[in-house]
Amino acid sequence: MWLRPRGLLLLLLLAGQVALGARRGRWRRELAPGLHLRGIRDAGGSYCQKQDLCCRGRADDCALPYLGATCYCDLFCNRTVSDCCPDFWDFCLGVPPPFPPIQGCMHGGRVYPVLGTYWDNCNRCTCQEKGRWECDQEPCLVDPDMINAINQGNYGWQAGNHSAFWGMTLEEGIRYRLGTNRPPSSVMNMNEIYTGLGSGEVLPTAFEASEKWPNLIHEPLDQGNCAGSWAFSTAAVASDRVSIHSLGHMTPVLSPQNLLSCDTHHQQGCRGGRLDGAWWFLRRRGVVSDHCYPFSGHEQDEAGPAPPCMMHSRAMGRGKRQATARCPNSHVHANDIYQVTPAYRLGSNEKEIMKELLENGPVQALMEVHEDFFLYQGGIYSHTPVSLERPERYRRHGTHSVKITGWGEETLPDGRTLKYWTHNASRKSR
Ligand SMILES: *[C@@H]1O[C@H](CO)[C@@H](O)[C@H](O)[C@H]1NC(C)=O
Ligand SMILES: *[C@@H]1O[C@H](CO)[C@@H](O)[C@H](O)[C@H]1NC(C)=O
Ligand SMILES: *[C@@H]1O[C@H](CO)[C@@H](O)[C@H](O)[C@H]1NC(C)=O
């Protein structure tokens, strides 16, 4: 274990590299308190051993970087106040260290005390005895293994890391990022409307609402960690339709918050809600613009009370309604109430949906969202089997609702045609 002649050459080379630092170190070495008495000792660390370094007497070059300082593998370090590398006694002397290692763990060049923690994506790691980290084992919403599997699997879409999702568990993603309750059978059994599609009628192979109705199709709002897609998607479709049907005289972005806070009958705000209830509210009560009644926040404290309703409307004759309060927002005064005509259900025939979109504007769709959807970055999304081999807790899904703004098709290398819907011009799914 002591330096062999061959090792000496290596050591000299090493020493050449750290010459400057070592000279400064010599001065500091004599004055600095011992590394270990300061409470830092990397219990499991391999230093002298890793470099096969042990020196007799005093050898200031017989040193290694240690947690932003320097530790030594020479006999001189074995003083009352010691700056030996943690494994000096074990490795160079073959004896147990003169003082017990202070318990702690290393991570990223830092020492953490016992019970110290850090976050590894969505999992908390806690320092245990003997320098051992113990990390939670929750499936994370952004899973680098899943991203790689999707990108290598040629599924027709690209996966990536959405920084807003980093650090969340899959469970939290399903709980906070979706938020549409499955409609009861009374809604699913509603009569379907037929658009009167002629049997020989040919629809374009691609369509985008924002091209037919420039400036009348609104960008999606960000629901953040509010499981209120029921309110966001309904307000989004209604905003576009109000704009289209008024021929651009009104182009409000309708307020999801007005729905979240005020449409409370059988609805749970940022904990989910139903589309039929949202449409009923928009027709009978109406909502103000998002400008007037802005979204109050992305983080919803589940335990805390939901924000109270800050806007009501009352009838003013001829089916019209007016707001009973000012905008909950001091710099906007326009508190017009917007109402919509009754919602109707389309069948699942794609041609019917296309014709409706083409003639009347964006439509709302329910969508079952699976774990891989949170990684979508581009291409034509379809649910992939990449999580099939993993334990069940990696395969989760929840119901979501979205605004569909168009459609298109793409010819694959093998000649097949893939049709897709667009959620706005850039997001596609089969
Ligand atoms: C190292 O230091 C301890 C405590 O001062 C002493 O008992 C021991 O003999 C020293 N070991 C060597 C090899 O010098
Ligand atoms: C994902 O994004 C977050 C936030 O930007 C970043 O901290 C993290 O390192 C990224 N993870 C991967 C695997 O790229
Ligand atoms: C679609 O959405 C993305 C992201 O929100 C946005 O950057 C893009 O401009 C949108 N495109 C259209 C045409 O709405």
From TrEMBL:
GO terms for cellular component: extracellular region. Keywords: Disulfide bond, Glycoprotein, Secreted, Signal. The keyword ATP-binding does not apply. It is found in: Secreted. GO terms for molecular function: cysteine-type peptidase activity. One of its GO terms (biological process) is proteolysis. Pfam families: Peptidase_C1. Residues 1-21 form the signal peptide. InterPro entries: Papain-like_cys_pep_sf, Pept_his_AS, Peptidase_C1A, Peptidase_C1A_C, Somatomedin_B_dom. Belongs to the peptidase C1 family. This is Tubulointerstitial nephritis antigen-like.
